[in-house]
Specification:
about 675 residues; Beta-galactosidase, Chain A, domain 5; alpha+beta; 8-stranded antiparallel β-sheet; 18 helices; UCP014753; single chain; 6-stranded antiparallel β-sheet; 2 domains
Length: about 675
Amino acid sequence: MTPTGPLDTEHQVSRREFLALSAAAGGALLLQPGCGSRENAPAEAAGPALVQTGYGYEKWDEILRSILQGFVRNARATSDTFAVCDYRNGTHLENFVTAGGKTCDSVTRILPALAAAVSTPEARKSVEVEGVEYRLEDILHSALSHGTDPRDKDFWRYASPGHSDQRQVESSIVAFSLWLAGDRLLDRFTPQERKNIQDWLASCTKIEVRRNNWALFTAVNHAARLALAERWPEFSGDESFFRADLESIDRMYAGDGWYHDSLEGAEYDYYNFWVFASHTLYWDMLVGERFPDLREKFRNRLKQFLETVPYLFGANGSHILYGRSLIYRWATLTPLVLSYRLGLWPLSTGLLRRICNTNLSFLWQAGAWDEENGCLRESLTPHSSREICESYINNGHPYWGMQAFFTAGFPHDDPFWNAPEEPLPVETADFRKIIPAAGILLQGHKQSGQVEMWQARSSGHYPNKYYNFSYSSHFPFNVGQAEGQVPPDCSLAFSGRHGAYGRRSGTYAGEIVSESEISWQWKTTVGQAEVEADSRVFIDGELQWRVHKVSFGGKERLTASESTYALGLEPGEAAEIHSGGVWEHAASRRSGQAVFIRAIYGFLDHHPLAGFRGREDLNSFCPRAMQASVSAGIDPGGPRLLIAAVYASPSPLPLGRLLEATGKLPPQVAEYAGLEA
């Protein structure tokens, strides 16, 4: 019987039951980021009715087909086995390659989508490339049999017995994909081939990796082998090993459904989506019914987490961009679709559709797909900064997002494809939401569709990706560095003689004082001076009142500069700029987005929209981006009081309204600063 909605939450789903409930595939969607363009703007509600995107199975399948065709072309150009793939003009690293130097994770990361399609009779079964039809099951079989055969030229090689290895990461999705593809595929392997797969997977669990999220990769590896051992004697796993893995994951749990990324750190980012939530769901599907106490604990956490998820998405479809590994893109959707299939999605199917359709559309239409080279880009868009990529990113890494195409196993008549979309929280009403354990404050603005995020704390981790005062769904941050320095957008920065520069870029602590107030204590070094700052932001709609008390020693005078969000612009576009005695306003003529900043106290100078150190090409998303600022020269000593009003909106207020709104200090800001309102 074909289900008409998510499964009952209490249902015990075995692999055979799961496969009996699945079949379908993925494609394109409809929203645009707005780096200087009004075209393809988010659908707006007409009266009480939400305008539907109109996207379902066919459009998702369009995207999946394009990605698979690109994979086949590039894999065939690399070898005849489908076990390796070097995408044309892609980055080549040595972290997971064959003895011959060919890339392997470009293959392992596409396996979950292939397996989902193979697992169900209704789904796409082949892809045509240059007149040749390639069966997905054959690709899976070839990749796994050649990649795990130590005698094969494209052998993936065993994981290092002496240190952590990228193969440990990849082994989790290899193992899960093998299980998901099911009996039909596994019966095609000879006993020796199944033993080869077992040996390769086992090599990836020789070393314990329990200080960060990697513990879930080895836990899933063992869980999959235990599940496979029920039928095929070549497989075996170790329950005690994965229990120890899960105990370490417990120590990373903060509360409210959120985890921090390691035992030592305090990073709360999208790894909660593309490892913690997704891989605890994999473990649940594989062996959860054997361990009901563990499963219940993880499911309770998952429910709390999923209930926070919709608040991270803007009306343009973007999740708030911040943190590392952002080129995993729609991997944010992986735990959403997994939980839906298992009956664990706690909200409506219509809301799930809205999140998934708009997010995939936003990222795809922004230029995720490189048509010329037939691959997912290593940058978010064709013209954005390459510095969005971390040192571990190679040509295969963007394909971590292919786990979201677990949807390829959904029946064609599943409500996921055709239930009426329901509005996102930001499309419903203004909101403020606190996630206490993660120290996250979220705010949504219905009129503009913008969602913003403030974090109370973070530990030293990628200084160009975690340390702005706030992040936005509509104003992507500057990620590239100029002369080795992190840009000052949406932050307070200091400069001194001989190019000395500093801003918040290391461990900081703070607290969410209320739904409209957040404070931090932080330090930075500028030349020989150590600057201490006590910063507090008062949130007033899309307007932020930023108050700083700054102290530093030494003899040299510094310049303190407060900057707006980065305003994205198209190539060749001239922003519309207005300047006043103490303020700056800039808007994109094409998108209508605007930024505004006003010196309120302590700041004496104002600076029109400009790139950091003359660079306009530093943005994580847009071809060009610049920020406006106010500044002041300050002498050693302190504390020195600095106050600025900062505003950004995709649908901005008129300049006159902004000047009126910032003409008088709000009482609570004045009280905190010790000034008269």
